Amino acid sequence: MNLWLSEIAKAINGELRNFSSDVLVKNFSINSKNIGKDTLFIPLKGSRFDGHDFVKEALQNGAISFISQKDFEDIKVPYIKVQDSLLALQSLACYARRKLNDLKVVGVTGSVGKTSTKEYIFNVLSRKYKAFKNQGNFNNHIGLPISILNMPDDTQVAVFEMGMSNFGEISKLSQIAKPDIGIITNIGVAHIENLKSRYNIFLAKSEIQDGMPESGILIINSDNDILNLHKKELKRKVVTIGIENESNFRAQNVQRHQNGFSFEVGGYTYFIESFNFHDIYNSLFAIAVGTILEVDRQLVKEAIRQKERLKRRFEVIKKGSITVVDDTYNASTHSMLSAIDSICEFEGKKILVLGDMLELGEFSEEEHRKVGRYILQKPIDVVICTGKDAIYIFDEAKKKEGSRAYFVSKDECLDVLKREVTSNSTILFKASRGVKLDEVVDEFLKER
């Protein structure tokens, strides 16, 4: 977005220093090394680093100005003095959003599936509109505002993923982005350590309504027990998607094919190139958004067929006759069970390499045991558990007759895999990101 420096100062109630003539800012960055043409550097003070220590580096790399909560008497370029640079960033993003009166915004939150849902929606909307999405992990109180500021001026529709770990965080993001359409993918147990119950997680995710207009539309997954039970508490018009329960956009006649799933919605057939059953739900959100924003049905069908391949999110990698499924980006109980379901559809020997699910607090043992008990019902041949609380998965899974269960260190996982992997094996790797199970995946692939 293009903004004049004087305009920025007024929007954030800042004081212009060393100002003689106005400059047009076209880009915004919080990283002193990532400075493009006509960039305003916004240094943030964190627990480990202070961005103000890198102001001179940002200027050397081409920044034309900066915002600062510190005085810089030895710097002669114009800059804006503020009380708090983080609040200034968020205030500026609010101002930029208000300027874009015709912009339609879709906000996506939920316990799992946010990124995949965002990608499907972006694919659909890009077929008709000049669309924008926040990248990677830019889904928090810092990433979302900087994404809005770097959005092209001609953007017609934006899709923003919104993450949280506690009350008030989604509300802040919603009031900045002001979504016209809000999406809650599901309510699981991610962040239950902080929020103590799934109902509280529902309340925290429901804060997405706080920045929505009264005419806004909220799309929810009616197959999710908590959302279905409490949907009458929501304050905006509710549209539902689902497979099992009656929904406005319901997938029926679901068929698994060699390279994905086909299903019918409202009498029309759709196909997604994905091995992950949960992507049906993610694509249903995109079908619903496309319908609401009047994207031609044929364009929607083409757009959801294949989303961008997301690294370490149920990423299927073929190595000769062996299939590796790298789902190590993150894990919760819901996503664990969903991934196990999907693996059961693969042919041949099925091996699970599972690590801890983090941030479960006092609920951790029971949630890990729940995964182990679930495995007992499934045609899984080998379970390899690693970590601290993954021992509870092992403790349940070892009860399964005819299968083998191991509890080993992360370093020992490869030794067990060498013994257990045979031709036509499928191996699922899944754990929370902090476990760093991706390192085992990389080592395993390196040796194949």
UniProtKB/TrEMBL annotation:
Residues 26-94 form the Mur ligase N-terminal catalytic domain. It is found in: Cytoplasm. Its main location: cytoplasm. Pfam families: Mur_ligase (PF01225), Mur_ligase_C (PF02875), Mur_ligase_M (PF08245). Pathway: Cell wall biogenesis; peptidoglycan biosynthesis. Gene3D superfamilies: Mur ligase, C-terminal domain, Mur-like, catalytic domain, MurE/MurF, N-terminal domain. Involved in cell wall formation. Catalyzes the final step in the synthesis of UDP-N-acetylmuramoyl-pentapeptide, the precursor of murein. Belongs to the MurCDEF family. MurF subfamily. This is UDP-N-acetylmuramoyl-tripeptide--D-alanyl-D-alanine ligase.
